[in-house]
Request: fold
Amino acid sequence: MRKHKETPLIHAGQPQSYTPKFLADKILKNRSAIEGERKLITVLFADVAGYTSIAEKFDPEEVHQIMDGCFKILMDEIHRFEGTINQFTGDGVMALFGAPVAHEDHAQRACYAALAVQKAIGEFGEKIKEDRGVDFLMRIGLNSGQVVVGSIGNDLRMDYTAIGDTTNLALRLPHQKRRDKSFFLFYNWGHENFNQY
Reply:
């Protein structure tokens, strides 16, 4: 199983505790130029399939240990493609590609991150299955669309407001029932963004 570097303790309400320095520096350097700007970005939602049954089966310390490993994978892979984790959702994350760090290839970066997460979670899930006898799978949804960048504080706390259905659709996609048991769904405003994947 691929080892992920040690990450500091995660404080969900304190983005500076989990954002790598290289990414934090880029965000803070450019924040005045992007605050209040409408941007086309890709939103990634990832969550654990069957999290409730895992939480019911194990004691809180074991669940915390499992999720800590999961969050480390999510942070490593999302940050590798310069995505920004906007919020932790309990059993997953919401991440943005293309804001606050601008990239014309935000959709491709989100796809690469999603594929990397699935590969690493697959390896992690095999270890969980072997050690604890439960399946551990990650569902991911991607959607591209417009958002307005609000304020970015010195602590990297960001206020994003989604325009239209960009964020809501990305959130709903991982929960769609699929006959083929796939755990990676996307929808976009122009198929040219995802057509290589």
About this structure: The longest strand covers residues 137-152. The domain at 15-193 is CATH 3.30.70.1230 (Alpha-Beta Plaits). The chain has one domain: 15-193.
